[in-house]
Amino acid sequence: MDLPIYSPKTTAELLGLSPKALRSALAQDGYSAQDLWALRKALRIHPRPIGHRKQLFLNFKGGTGKTSLSTSYAYRLAELGYSVLLVDLDSQGHATKCLGYEGEDFEKTLLHVLVRKAPLSEAIQHTPLPNLDFVPSNLGMSTVDLALMPMAGREFKLRKAVEEIDDRYDVVVFDAPPSFGLLNLNALMAAQDLFVPVLPDFLSFHGLKLLFETVQSLEEDLNHVLDHVFIVVNAFNQTFKLAKEALAALREHYPEYLLTTLVRQCTKFAQASSEGVPVFISERDSKGAHDVDAFLREVLHRLDQSRVQATTDARAG
Fold first, then answer.
1. What is the pLDDT of residue 195?
2. 42-84 pLDDT, tens digit each
3. Which pLDDT does position 156 carry in this prediction?
4. Same domain, 81 and 7
5. Is 316 part of any domain?
């Protein structure tokens, strides 16, 4: 994955500085990702703490653009200064490819962690962005569900594996395949926040219903309650009557979960994924990039609101 050279304007925006303050700290015509990270450390510019979050992108229905969203979301979090680990759970390795890598090039995946008991740190790979790491996936991962079946405590293997690296990352992002099995059950049990990308069509409702039934069963049977569930509408085209009708139905049936940000249909977004790069590398000024940034910032705002409310409730109690 080749990273862009940031312009002074973009660098100042990412750091929350004025152009003058940036020039005073380090005057250059362009800034690398390493320069950006070094400036954060030198100037003690850190993003607002969000705790150590585990966030899962999942929809049992395929074709919703889940991986394009999750990889661009993870990349953008890292650009904003958070330390991020992206974990590819899909044996097709699409999240790995969206970062510009081929899963077959790596010896260890989550299979070695969950089944062969290797430490998670041995499967972690680094990207050129100093604070973005990933766990790759390849076709070998297709055997994970069967291998987990006879194991004791099989639903909790991923949660326990992540404990090893919990303090190293602000956010762990899981990208899951569009299916239900033991691996995705592990991901749900490890996650605090669930992101459900949906297309603005009525076929998405069936997948949502099944997913919410699964989440409810986790609460009842395994006593695991997610902190947040976020539904994000992807590939929205306001010129389509069906899309507007589907959005209205989502707002009616899932108002407490549906994000207000809509990720609009964007050919440049899809093209970036096919080229193996997050949209912020190839098309930073595209509407897809702007929408993912808005989606991320809405999520951060909601997390912050929840944290403030929890603190208020604790003091009142």
1. 98
2. 999 999 999 999 999 999 888 899 999 999 999 999 999 999 9
3. 97
4. no
5. no
The per-residue pLDDT for 207 is 78
The residue type at 69: L
Q: In the prediction, which pLDDT does 1 show?
A: 81
CA dihedral 83, 58, 192, 284 (to 10 degrees): 30
Domain that holds residue 106: 46-311
Write out the DSSP string of the chain. Answer: -PPPPBPHHHHHHHHT--HHHHHHH---S-B-HHHHHHHHHHHT--PPP--SEEEEE--SSS-S-HHHHHHHHHHHHHHTT--EEEEE--TT-HHHHHTT--GGG-S--HHHHHTS---GGGT-EE-SSTTEEEE---GGGGGHHHHHTTSTTGGGHHHHHHHTTGGG-SEEEEE--SS-SHHHHHHHHH-SEEEEEE-SSTTHHHHHHHHHHHHHHHHHHS----SEEEEEEEEE-TT-HHHHHHHHHHHHH-TTTEEEEEEE--HHHHHHHHTTS-HHHH-TTSHHHHHHHHHHHHHHHHHHHHHHHHHHHHHH-
Instruction: Name residues of the chain where pLDDT drops below 50.
Output: none
| Residues 159 and 248 occupy one common structural domain | yes
Q: How far apart are CA 235 and CA 73, in angstroms?
A: 15
Indicate whether 317 belongs to any domain.
Answer: no
Is residue 297, in this structure, part of any structural domain at all? Answer: yes
